[in-house]
TrEMBL record:
It catalyses: L-histidine = trans-urocanate + NH4(+). Transmembrane segments: none annotated. It comes from Actinacidiphila polyblastidii. HAMAP family: His_ammonia_lyase. It is found in: Cytoplasm. This is Histidine ammonia-lyase.
Length: 522
């Protein structure tokens, strides 16, 4: 994939394409096959529009108003009215990367040749993305069925030269001004086009793709911090032996155990669980780390499979079906816009994220409790009693975990009827996606607090001792300190230090530091 130019064809796109456009500002280009397919599907719509029989989305109203046949002279107004009335979002602005992903995914479906829009509609959407114009989209307005209607309608408005958008400088301005500055002509929508622009699961899918990428990094980071905590607590790495995980053959579990084992290779601290306070086995939060993280990894694998299928899909209603030579092309109503497949996995990921955070917080608490830390000072404080150490850092971590548990309550089990009971079962997939974004951010912070505590504990443990940490651990300690995250010492203003630790985890620096010794981790 060329990071500067993502080519969109009729057969779908990849998750990497979405990330490149949404997060890296890659330019998009429609290939000849896409334009040819778009033209063919438009020919079908034009033929149907000329007939006296009503066709949903072409010559009728929408939703519960689909019973009315719309005469040709009112059809342009019908499309404008659809977009304007559906651009009814409220609440805070949605992040730029989400809006870019949403637009790019809608462009992907337009390029499939299944929606019946004219080439100019797809070309204008590509031009807006390439000009770094981002429609102003709001938090609330999608029920995750009949598409992410309000968010997509705010984007469609911008194609029409209406509404508001963020320019390349991030300032919100009238869309008409921004289009004019970049030489982009607003589109006068024709039959079917307004509907084709708003009837897709693109927002929730874009957020799923980005969450999968972020969670993949965080699962690697969590394996590393679990290994650091095991080492700091003088635990045993024998529970990570491959043969133990082979007899319960979950792929994610094996991958997490392998990551931990490679981080701990060569450690002089592991295996001392039989010393001063003998332990037959470590606590669950240490011993079961691969099982919990591994289950989350397997959930992530399933979510990626769903995302891949959606990236190959053409989501619209009605949809254009090509003729096969024996019959003409036609337009068929369908239910492919329902967000259930995406909504479910968004909720699954939020549940897995909450549990991963929960076990990480338990390890942190163990590091700070002198009754369970096997010789570490209370709260890893320099002078306990005078200094409080990381006592309140764990409070912050616990608050994040509690919030993650709330965010794990599934959105997709809810449904609220709409459109005068025509749309009487909805997915709430957009809501599932929005809360997952918060959950992913919280999880990164929870893992950062564990890393902060475990690295401090390791330095305390090895200062003045003949015991040496694993080579990978030593590389991590050096990288953490180089990044401005401090080690043991007197109490100091903790919030900036914790934020530096979060950036270190979130941006993948923790994994990169370990991999200088271990090689690539899963």
């Amino acid at each position: 994939m060329d990071m500067q130019n993502v080519v969109v064809g009729p057969t779908g796109i990849t998750a990497d394409d979405v990330l490149a456009v949404a997060r890296s500002g890659a330019r998009v280009e429609l290939n000849d096959a896409a334009l040819a397919g778009i033209t063919r599907s438009r020919d079908v719509i034009d033929a149907l529009a000329a007939k006296p029989e009503p066709v949903y989305g072409v010559s009728t109203g929408f939703g519960a108003l689909a019973v009315r046949h719309i005469s040709p002279e009112l059809r342009a107004q019908l499309q404008r009215s659809l977009v304007r009335s559906h651009a009814a979002g409220m609440g805070p602005a949605v992040e730029r990367e989400v809006v870019r992903a949403l637009m790019f995914l809608r462009l992907k479906t337009l390029a499939s040749g299944r929606t019946g829009v004219r080439p100019v509609v797809a070309e204008t959407m590509a031009a807006i993305l390439n000009a770094d114009i981002t429609p102003a989209v709001h938090e609330y307005g999608s029920l995750g069925c009949s598409g992410d209607l309000a968010p997509l309608a705010h984007c469609a408005q911008v194609l029409m030269g209406e509404g508001e958008a963020l320019g390349p400088d991030g300032a919100v301005r009238p869309a008409a001004e921004l289009l004019a500055e970049h030489g982009i002509e607003p589109v006068e929508l024709r039959e079917k086009e307004g509907l084709a622009l708003i009837n897709g699961t693109d927002g929730m899918l874009g957020m799923l793709v980005m969450a999968c990428a972020d969670l993949a990094r965080l699962y690697t980071a969590a394996d590393i911090t679990a290994a650091l905590s095991l080492e700091a607590l003088l635990g045993t790495d024998r529970v990570l032996a491959p043969e133990l995980h082979a007899i319960r053959p979950h792929p994610g579990q094996a991958a997490s155990a392998d990551n931990m084992r490679r981080v701990l290779a060569g450690s002089g601290l592991t295996g001392h669980h039989q010393d001063d306070a003998p332990r037959v086995q470590d606590a669950y939060s240490i011993r079961c780390a691969p099982q919990v993280a591994g289950a989350g990894r397997d959930t992530l694998t399933h979510a990626r499979l769903v995302a891949e299928r959606e990236l190959a899909a053409a989501i619209d209603n009605p949809v254009v079906i090509d003729g096969d030579g024996s019959q003409e092309g036609r337009v068929e109503s369908n239910g492919n816009f329902h967000g259930a497949p995406v909504g479910y996995v968004l909720d699954f990921l939020a549940i897995a994220a909450a549990d991963l955070a929960s076990i990480a917080e338990r390890r942190t608490d163990r590091l700070l409790d002198r009754n369970r830390s096997h010789g570490l000072p209370p709260f890893l404080a320099d002078d306990p009693g005078v200094d409080s150490g990381l006592m309140i850092a764990q409070y912050t971590q616990a608050a994040l975990v509690s919030e993650l548990k709330r965010l794990a309550v599934p959105a997709s089990v809810d449904s609220i009827p709409s459109s005068a009971m025509q749309e009487d079962h909805v997915s709430m997939g957009w809501s599932a996606a929005r809360k997952l974004r918060t959950a992913v951010d919280n999880l990164g912070r929870v893992i950062a607090v564990e890393m902060f505590a475990a690295t401090r504990a390791l330095e305390i443990r090895t200062t003045g001792s003949a015991l040496r940490p694993a080579p990978a651990t030593a590389a991590i300690l050096a990288a953490v300190r180089d990044a401005g995250v401090p080690g043991p010492g007197r109490d100091r203003f903790l919030a900036p230090d914790l934020e530096a630790a979060h950036v270190f985890v979130r941006d993948g620096a923790l994994a990169r530091a370990a991999e200088t010794v271990t090689g690539p981790l899963a």
